[in-house]
Amino acid sequence: MRRLPPVLIEDGCSRELLSLIRTILAACKEISFRVGQGALSGVLGSTLDENIQGETQKKLDVLSNQLLKDILLESGYVKAIASEEEDYTVAGNPDADYIVAFDPLDGSSNTDINSLVGTIFSIMAAPKEADPADPAIFMQPGHQQVAAGYVLYGPCTTLALTTGKGTRIFTLDKTHGSFLLTEEFAKIPEDTQEYAINASNQRHWQPAMQNYINDLQAGSTGPRAKDFNMRWIAAMVGDVHRVLCRGGIFTYPTDTKNPEKPYKLRLLYEANPMAMLVEQAGGIAHTGEQRIMDIAPDAIHQRVAVILGSKNEVETCLNYHK
Ligand SMILES: O=P(O)(O)OC[C@H]1O[C@](O)(COP(=O)(O)O)[C@@H](O)[C@@H]1O
Ligand SMILES: [Mg+2]
Ligand SMILES: [Mg+2]
């Protein structure tokens, strides 16, 4: 099985970008180990702190964030970082060519129940003369990402990664700590009979999403004339991995549950990197109004609606929104 570096070089990845990606993965290997130790490593449970988004931080959120932040800033490969667990961006090496936005631990509500969690990252070019402390350097649309990926900490540790030449899947060989290529190119089937949404929010959705989901649930007795199955892992990294592996539609739509927060998922370090991975695997990633990677960000922790997955099924869902 082929190791990550030669595969990325083959995909035209520069030595520097490869070094940056390997730096991120070094931290993810440590997170994988800590997650795997569970209660034995004292990392379960919550802290008493909240992040800027008003979410109580899990100990693993804080630990994963610290591991990634330290290794990236010490590496000298980043001009600045943005993280779900950092209220503001953090300046790095002013001469570096890249900036990284990351969700150090996705699926935090799963940490204490031994369920799927992951790390999501988005790499963009750093504007040359810009001040590393200026958060505006992160206000780039997703189609400007130079690389995106996630590491899923499950029964095995898997990496989905793209540098714009297709989406590759690697598995961590824990015997010697290397990521080995296990899926040459992920290809999302265009059609599916599997959907993922948090159905407990149904009464808060817009009518278009209500109608779309009602017709899925009506199955072969309804206008879709086929049965659909539902899955919800409550970790975007897990639900998107399933979509990359066997297709499906994953959505966290806008809702009226909390008028101040009509969206759940964050653009810079959840929606954009997942959108690049999905599009590079032949799928679609949309908000219901526009392609996710065309959005011009205006805030570090900005949230958006997400509808992504199998091309024909997402298009059908979007037709309900027209
Ligand atoms: O609690 P809900 O409504 O099921 O939301 C689950 C969603 O929230 C998230 O856990 C948010 O991400 P974080 O865990 O990184 O905050 C997503 O991974 C997941 O898709
Ligand atoms: Mg997340
Ligand atoms: Mg998180």
From TrEMBL:
Mg(2+) 2 binds at residues 103, 106, 270. Keywords: Carbohydrate metabolism, Cytoplasm, Hydrolase, Magnesium, Metal-binding. The keyword Hydrolase applies. Substrate binds at residues 106-109, 198, 264. Binds 2 magnesium ions per subunit. It catalyses: beta-D-fructose 1,6-bisphosphate + H2O = beta-D-fructose 6-phosphate + phosphate. It comes from the Bacteria. Homotetramer. This is Fructose-1,6-bisphosphatase class 1. It comes from Pseudoalteromonas aurantia.
